[in-house]
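Dear colleagues,

As part of the handover before I leave the project, I'm documenting each prediction I ran so the next person doesn't have to rerun anything. This entry is a single chain, and its sequence is reproduced below.
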Amino acid sequence: MIFFTFFPDYKRNYNVNGNSIFSELLLKKYYKKNNDIIINTTLKNKHLTFVKKLFSYLIVFYYIFFKGQKKIFTVMLDNYGFYPHLLFCYFASFFSKLIIYHHSFVYINKRKILFNLLSSKRIKHVCISKKQYNILKSNYNLNNSILVENYIFFLKKNFIKKNYNHKIKKVIFLSALVKEKGIYDYLNLAKKFKKTKGINFYIYGNNCSKIILKEIKFAKKCKIIKNYKLNVYGKIKEKILNESDILIFPSMHKSETTPLTIDECIDKLIIPICYDIGDIRNQINKLDLVGKDLNFLKYKIIHVYRNFDVYKNKIKKLKNLRIKNKIKYMKKLDSCFY
């Protein structure tokens, strides 16, 4: 199999997002060293990335025609290179079987006619949300699709988060520190609670520009937030999640489907309060934790704080439900790769 996609670059703190991390997890699970090929298209420069992708198409066809590789895993691009990648997948399907992982909502919200070219039976489509799965089938006739929700890789059957008997709740922002992910709304929310006892705000994330970092430092100086930390991965991230209580996720990012950070928080029994975008509402099982504006976030965080144990039990039930479904989803995913 050829793993033709992009992966997170932790050393340079680049391209660390749900899409690339999911590709990395799939690679760890299904990659066979002696048989499979990795073609990583990750580059920091956008223009060079596009050039690298075009060159990578030739490399993929080389492995298909001359090295006997007859199966490809790839990710459907949603922005730069959408049409070239679509056409590549179409032509490659005549010579090999494809597994296309769908992470975005961009080409789902706005119908693109050429996407119907990918309805071939030789192409298996992996969807990460119910809404995405249903729209792909109805709009593009992609009947050869399976639903595999992101959380399957993170759930630990016997894991139970420790009960922290602390009165002060730790509220976190954990995502890319960019405007589209809602960092400014989070800071504005934190300002509204500056004089409120019992709630502390923290910021964690990557891809932080100098301008936004300046805003974050100023917020800490003014005691709007308690603290911040950039580029948290591995054990550090695990520790942060274990110590946190509430996630605020005010994303307005057009590509948002079912954000990985929400899955990670549910796994750690952290209560997510989010904007209604992508398929987040289904992701958290239609709990009353999804709204449309800053006023909703303000109201809901107070309500959750006052009824914390009730909401924590709701998240615990949601996690248990996911554990029950994990084997079913894993079997579907295995059928694609084996």
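Residues 169-319 form a domain with the Rossmann fold fold (CATH 3.40.50.2000). Residues 308-337 form the longest helix (30 residues).

All the best with the project,
I.
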